[in-house]
Automatic annotation (TrEMBL):
Name of the protein this chain belongs to: tRNA (cytidine/uridine-2'-O-)-methyltransferase TrmJ
Taxonomic source organism: Aeromonas veronii
Annotated function: Catalyzes the formation of 2'O-methylated cytidine (Cm32) or 2'O-methylated uridine (Um32) at position 32 in tRNA.
Matches recorded under SUPFAM superfamilies: alpha/beta knot (SSF75217)
Any one GO biological process: tRNA nucleoside ribose methylation
Compartments in which it is found: Cytoplasm
Encoding gene, per UniProt annotation: trmJ
Keyword Cytoplasm on entry: yes
Subunit structure of this chain's protein: Homodimer.
This protein's UniProt keywords: Cytoplasm, Methyltransferase, S-adenosyl-L-methionine, Transferase, tRNA processing
CDD domains: SpoU-like_TrmJ (cd18093)
Listed EC numbers: 2.1.1.200
Length: 240
């Protein structure tokens, strides 16, 4: 089941962090590493720091965008250490480990980590169902990338060791990230055509709607109903 949970590193700048993250993963039994638009490819330094986890690093999938990394995932959790203007459903590391293992029985799960200095962008965080923050010492909360990966991988392993969760029923299946993104695009197009949002300023409203639907976690069948409603609205609208 642990092979259903992937670690996604976005735009990593230091190759050593890739190797250290691979080592942190393997010690906890995780092997699926995805590098999104890395600033450099894994080099000798990365493999040296990977130590006995060079296989995890060598088999890492390299993709150009976060969308490519999470397209088939039914659960996406993004790490965030900063307070954001738009609040989002939050988890602590233990809750993130719990959800990852339970939902990993049903579909791929992604734990997403941002850039060493600036983390994930707001747009990237809005592609996540939940955000997770590590409750470090507020007087010195600086965790390097590999430490953050190790913390979440540990929580995943501890939950996995408690025993695998019962497999969810088929009707509780959640849509993939790609299916959700398709819904958001469909929703935005429909709201533009009805005049509910302006063509040149859709961002603020769409951000709030993304938060609403991410919080609601519609099932795949429910998402199909919503898309059917949008299609019906588009067909029923009288042309200008």
């Amino acid at each position: 089941m642990l092979d259903q949970i992937r670690i996604v590193l976005v735009n990593t700048s230091h190759t050593g962090n890739m190797g250290s993250a691979a080592r942190a993963m393997k010690t906890m039994g995780l092997t699926q590493l995805v590098l999104v638009d890395p600033q450099a490819l894994p080099d000798d330094n990365a493999f040296a720091l990977a130590a006995g986890a060079s296989d995890v690093l060598a088999n890492a999938r390299i993709v150009p965008t976060l969308d490519d990394a999470i397209a088939d995932c039914g659960l996406v959790i993004g790490t965030s250490a900063r307070s954001r203007t738009l609040s989002w459903p939050m988890l602590d590391p233990r809750e993130a480990g719990e959800k990852s293992v339970v939902e990993g029985m049903q579909h791929p799960v992604a734990l997403v980590f941002g850039r060493e200095r600036t983390g994930l962008t707001n747009d990237e965080l809005q592609k996540c169902h939940y955000h997770v923050a590590i409750p470090a010492n507020p007087d010195y909360s600086s965790l390097n990338l590999a430490m953050a990966v190790q913390t979440l991988c540990y929580e995943v392993r501890m939950r996995w060791l408690q025993g695998q969760a019962a497999e969810p029923e088929d009707e509780m299946a959640y849509p993939s990230a790609a299916q959700l993104e398709g819904f958001y695009q469909h929703l935005e197009q429909t709201l533009m055509k009805t005049g509910f949002i302006a063509d040149d300023h859709p961002g603020h409203v769409m951000s709030k709607l993304r938060r609403l639907f991410n919080r609601a976690r519609p099932e795949a069948a429910e998402l199909n109903i919503l898309r059917g409603i949008l299609t019906s609205v588009q067909k029923a609208r009288v042309p200008d």
